Amino acid sequence: METVGTATVWTRETALGEKQDLWRAMKRGFRGRCPRCGEGKLFRAFLKTANNCSVCGIDFTPHRADDLPAYLVIVIVGHIMVPLALSVETHFSPPVWLQLATYLPLTLILSLLLLQPVKGAVVGLQWAMRMHGFDENPPDGIPPV
Ligand SMILES: [Zn+2]
Q1: Residue 99: which domain range?
Q2: What's this model's pTM, rounded to 2 decimal places?
Q3: Is position 55 within any domain?
Q4: Which pLDDT score, from 0 to 100, does residue 4 have?
Q5: Is residue 113 part of a domain?
Q6: What's the gap in Å between 47 CA and the centre of ligand 1?
């Protein structure tokens, strides 16, 4: 905000708050840490985010990760398991029962291991991009979605 004479002028630069590094915030979220300070815990349960950071106090409740982490985990695990299954079938052709006994638990374990880190990265992305309720200067009349 700049002051010209007696009038206050909003400019793009003054509307932007502190610079927020996207990749750093996503990496911190991936590790389950606060995207702003990197110290406080982001989660209070497996997929439940804490209400706020215990170190810097940032409010985590405005995040709207919704189903995106699950979609991303499906894409990631699919890109690991499908080439693996095709390669094993092409080179070794093991019995179907052995493939099912291997691929199904591996898919489940990989998905569960990735779900929390991917959700943390999504919350970090939303914070860094000032999405939803993370914007300190929301436009008037447009509620955070
Ligand atoms: Zn913090």
Answers
A1: 20-128
A2: 0.82
A3: yes
A4: 63
A5: yes
A6: 18
Count structural domains, the chain: 1
59: CA distance to ligand 1 center in Å? 9
Q: Please indicate, yes or no, if residue 65 is contained in any of the structural domains.
A: yes
At residue 65, φ and ψ (nearest 5 deg) are -70, -35
Q: How close is the Cα of 133 to the center of ligand 1, in Å?
A: 16
Say if residues 47 and 119 touch (Cβ distance below 8 Å): yes
CA of residue 62 to ligand 1 center, whole Å:
15
- Asked whether residue 139 is assigned to any structural domain, the reply reads no
Predicted local distance difference test score (pLDDT) of residue 28: 97
Q: How far is the CA of 37 from the centre of ligand 1 (A)?
A: 4
10-residue stretch averages of pLDDT, the chain, 145 residues long: 63 64 96 96 96 95 94 98 97 96 97 98 94 76 60
